[in-house]
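Session log. Operator J.P. requested a structure for one protein chain; no other inputs attached. Running the standard single-chain path with C-alpha cell output.
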Amino acid sequence: MSWKKRIRQEQILSSLDKLGFATRSQLQQIHKLGTDRNALTVLSNMGEYLHVKRHAERNNENVYYLNQKGRELIGSEKERKYKNDVEHYLLRNDMYIHYNFPNDFTIEREIAFKSGLTQKIIRPDATFQKDNVYHFLEVDRTQSMIENKKKIALYAELSPLISTQFEHTPVLIFYTIISSRKKVIEDLCVKSRLKIEVKTLEEIK
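Structure written below.
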C-alpha cells in the first residue's frame, strides 16, 4: 500500500473516532472520495479496520464505525456499539458537514458554570467555533417539545455566565427533523434573548 493511501485510511479512521459513526456518503463528502463507486471501494479496502451495518433510517446506506483493529491502529480507546441512537450521531454529522468540517468539532462536551452557590452543567450534542464564535448544537430527533423548552430555559438562565466565560455571546443551533417545530423553537429562543439558528432536515438535504 502506498504511503498516500495509508494516510487517507488513517484520516478516515480518525474521523470515525471523532464522530462515532458515519455513512458512506458522509465520509465521501468529508474526505472527498469522489464517486459512490470509488468511495465504496476505498471503504471496502479498509474492511479489516471497520464495522459496517446497513442503516434503515437512511435507505439502508452503509454506516461505518471502528472495530478493535481500527481503534488500535490510531490509538483510540473509544469503543462504540451500534444501538438505537446511531441516527442521532448521523444527524450530528449532517451539521458537521453543513458547517464545513470545523476542526474543533467536539461531541457531548460538558461545560460547567457556577450559578450562585450551585454548579450548572450544559452538555451540547456538539460544540465548535465559527468565525471565532462558539456554537452549541442541539439535535432534536426524538425528544418532546417540553424537553426542548427545558433546554432553551437552561441556556437562557446560563446565558450571562456563558457570555462572560467565552467573552462573547455564543450561538445556539437546533437541528430538527420536524420542520413544523422550526418557528416554535425560533420564537422560544427569541423570547429568551438567545442567538439562535434553527436548521431542518429538509433544508439540509
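Operator note: The helical segments are 3-19, 24-30, 36-44, 68-74, 86-98, 145-166, 181-191, 201-204.
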